[in-house]
Design brief:
Shape: globular
Strand content: 15-25%
Radius of gyration: 18 Å
CATH topology: Rossmann fold
Order of helices and strands: EEEHEHHEHEHEEHHEHEH
CATH class: Alpha Beta
Number of strands: 10
CATH architecture: 3-Layer(aba) Sandwich
Strand order of the largest sheet: 1-2-4-3-5-6-9-10
Number of domains: 1
């Protein structure tokens, strides 16, 4: 088996450039591919994503990881694009993921058109992956990590105050930066929450094998959201695996400090799922 290599690619996205890493060996040979989708304040080089992508590539898969155009993060992993972050929406992320899958399926990301495509999404990216999998027949298997079950993340009173101020500020706990979030995301939710952004509705339509991984001690996205996804999905297609005591990132940190037991369980389960369901 060829030793995996890393190539970098750029595509136009909803809010600017989509930055893409592709790890693969034997790039001219058709093989299954997996796309990794980060969550809110996440990015392709955060903590656990590069080592997991390396592991998948060593297992013979082509692996695509991306910074959505509204991530606010550059290729060095720094939040240097706060305005894009501030105007980011769920619909923008979904459009970006669709564009990346289009290019991958057509063999335009430095690898041959894949024989099958899997998605992995973490947190908010898990919700985006569910939406994409429900609408895209090219997706053959899905794994979600600590996925959200709804785009409705803010209380009505908080939304009203946000709209009055014209901006809501959040702190990046890692960098201590104060990042703006504009009402664009609220407008997007108001317009599409019951339509194209209905995650539970999308979950009910997924007909491909779907592994739901969620930590029982997740303080950011409750384990009850995993139960909601499980309840909405077709029983014969989905499998919920609780990661006992796992937090939102399963003990992973940025910078990466190695695998915790929970991260190892998540990595093993995800690779096993794709080994079984991608050909």
């Amino acid at each position: 088996m060829a030793t995996p290599s890393l190539t970098k690619h750029v595509l136009p996205g909803a809010l600017g450039e989509i930055l893409i890493d592709v790890r693969a060996g034997g790039r001219d040979s058709p093989r299954p591919a997996v796309v990794l989708v980060h969550g809110f304040k996440g990015f392709k080089d955060w903590g656990m994503f590069p080592p997991f992508a390396d592991r998948l590539a060593r297992a013979g898969l082509s692996v695509v990881s991306l910074n959505t155009s509204g991530s606010g993060v550059d290729d060095a992993g720094d939040f240097t694009l706060p305005d894009r972050f501030g105007h980011n929406t769920f619909s923008a992320e979904l459009a970006d993921l669709g564009r990346v899958v289009d290019e991958l399926a057509q063999g335009k990301l430095g690898v041959a058109p894949p024989t099958a495509i899997g998605l992995v999404g973490h947190s908010r990216g898990g919700g985006i992956a569910v939406l994409q999998a429900a609408r895209d027949h090219r997706i053959d298997a899905l794994v979600t990590w600590a996925a959200i079950s709804s785009v409705e993340r803010w209380a009505p009173a908080d939304q009203a105050a946000w709209r009055r101020a014209g901006v809501h500020y959040i702190e990046n706990a890692r960098t201590k930066q104060t990042l703006p979030v504009y009402p664009d995301v609220l407008d997007d939710i108001a317009k599409h929450a019951l339509g194209t952004l209905d995650i539970l509705g999308a979950a009910s339509k997924i007909e491909i094998p779907w592994l739901i991984l969620h930590g029982t001690a997740d303080a950011a996205v409750s384990f009850m959201e995993a139960k909601a996804l499980e309840a909405a999905a077709l029983p014969e297609r989905r499998h919920l695996r609780a990661i006992d005591g796992g937090g939102h990132t399963f003990g992973a940190t940025h910078p990466w400090k190695g695998e915790s037991p929970a991260v190892q369980e998540v990595f093993d389960a995800t690779l096993g799922w794709f080994s079984t369901h991608l050909r």
